[in-house]
């Protein structure tokens, strides 16, 4: 069976696929296992009884297929916030989205308090241009209440033909009245990598990890190295702020671009023989130039893999605020004509053996943004540890929820970016830059 591993923050508008092949493993059924199976079948009989009672006695004739789909989704969503059922259409949409082009509004969303919460609007999309902000709660879609809908149902309602309008009503903290926002649907073409020259520093922003990300990064490094001149280039700023994640293989490739050797990430499931390790290959695309990575409370999943790998290997200095803390791997399991399920199957670990689930990556240099008055007191993300039913951190590790996730629209107001530029140019000095110590992460078992 081919299964696909996903490292996405939420399963609403984007998918994530890194193909792995799992083999059949022989097993022995004990008497205890037989007893457990018997109990399980009794519970399944209970489900059948309830199902038949609903079909026969509910006030209106229910849709049998919808009943079963909702039951499956309820079972999966009760496990953690990232496990879910995908209908055949949702599965097809996910496969399209990982290619970096799809139809929609251009927002990353999750479910909180029974409402759809905007994690972040994607750069240069209809939602971003219409004024949707991270932290907005969507209460109505075209006049219909969101309360009572599943996340997939709400997302499905927001999708539609290109060039058609949709009106969403949002509740925004600090604003007394609900806000109506009309958005024209469009093809969302995700250019996941953008770059520019900041004088003698190369600035690279990755908004998500899709199939185009590594190629975009390679082009950015090549062009800026040539244009600035390798002898004048002070280093690179890799901006992963508010990057919700994406493809595992792309996170590995981006990390590998800055490393010559060593482990990048490992994934560990319930069974010891399911552990997989991913290592860097020789060849640093930047020729060892200094690197500063910007992260914040909206940096999740694949972003945390890159940050954790380069931090553990002392290859980059992490600057900003603590990341989101999504350290779990979702496997996309196709169900033939019946869609697929997204199931949490493993945790991922940084090269030093650290799981960041519900804790996040702690920056080497913490730097807070100066908030505008209207955002003071409400510019933090919930964080993985703040999601209801999240997968617990391992052992006695302290869980941390919430971190500043604001990025000013104007670079001149960006405190974190200014500090990174000053460090690379030697205008400011900090003990954490450049990172000191052995450049090879110490392995922990």
TrEMBL record:
One GO MF term attached to the UniProt entry: endopeptidase activity
Keyword list, A-Z: Hydrolase, Protease, Serine protease, Signal
GO BP terms, alphabetized: proteolysis; signal transduction
Signal peptide: 1-18
Biased composition (Basic and acidic residues): 391-400
Domain (PDZ): residue spans on this chain: 91-159
This protein's record includes keyword Hydrolase: yes
Family assignment from sequence similarity: Belongs to the peptidase S41A family.
Name this polypeptide is given: C-terminal processing peptidase-3. Serine peptidase. MEROPS family S41A
Protein source organism: Roseibium suaedae
């Amino acid at each position: 069976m081919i299964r696909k591993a996903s490292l996405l923050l939420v399963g609403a508008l984007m998918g994530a696929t890194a193909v792995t092949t799992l083999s059949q493993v022989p097993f022995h059924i004990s008497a205890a296992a037989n007893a457990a199976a018997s109990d399980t079948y009794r519970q399944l009989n209970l489900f059948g009884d309830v199902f038949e009672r609903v079909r026969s006695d509910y006030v209106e004739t229910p849709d049998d297929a919808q009943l079963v789909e909702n039951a499956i989704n309820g079972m999966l969503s009760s496990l953690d916030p990232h496990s879910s059922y995908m209908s055949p259409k949702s599965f097809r949409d996910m496969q399209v989205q990982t290619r970096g082009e799809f139809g929609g509004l251009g927002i990353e969303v999750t479910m909180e308090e029974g409402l759809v919460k905007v994690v972040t609007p994607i750069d240069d999309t209809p939602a971003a241009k219409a004024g949707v902000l991270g932290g907005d709660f969507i209460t109505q879609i075209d006049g219909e209440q969101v309360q009572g809908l599943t996340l997939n149902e709400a997302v499905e309602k927001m999708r539609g033909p290109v060039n058609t309008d949709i009106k969403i009503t949002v509740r925004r903290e600090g604003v007394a009245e609900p806000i109506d926002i009309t958005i024209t649907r469009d093809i969302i073409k995700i250019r996941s990598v953008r770059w520019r020259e900041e004088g003698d520093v190369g600035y690279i922003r990755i908004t998500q990890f899709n199939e185009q990300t590594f190629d975009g990064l390679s082009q950015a490094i090549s062009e800026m190295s040539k244009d600035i001149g390798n002898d004048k280039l002070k280093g690179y700023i890799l901006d992963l702020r508010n990057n919700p994640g994406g493809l595992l293989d792309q996170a590995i490739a981006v990390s590998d671009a800055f490393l010559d050797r060593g482990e990048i990430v490992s994934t560990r499931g319930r069974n010891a023989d399911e552990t997989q390790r991913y290592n860097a290959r020789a060849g640093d695309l930047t020729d060892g130039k200094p690197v500063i990575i910007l992260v914040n409370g909206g940096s999740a999943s694949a972003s945390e893999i890159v940050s954790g790998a380069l931090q553990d290997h002392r290859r980059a200095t992490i600057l900003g605020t603590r990341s989101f803390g999504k350290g779990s791997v979702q496997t996309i399991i196709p169900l033939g004509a019946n869609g697929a399920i997204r199931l949490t199957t493993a945790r991922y670990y940084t090269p030093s053996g650290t799981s960041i689930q519900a804790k996040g990556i702690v920056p080497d240099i913490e730097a807070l943004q100066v908030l505008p008055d209207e955002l003071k007191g409400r510019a933090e993300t919930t964080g993985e540890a703040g999601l209801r039913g999240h997968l617990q951190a391992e052992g006695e590790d302290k869980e941390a929820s919430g971190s500043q996730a604001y990025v000013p629209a104007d670079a001149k107001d960006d405190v974190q970016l200014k500090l990174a530029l000053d460090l690379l140019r030697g205008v400011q000095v900090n003990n954490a830059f450049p990172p000191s110590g052995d450049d090879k992460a110490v392995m922990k078992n």
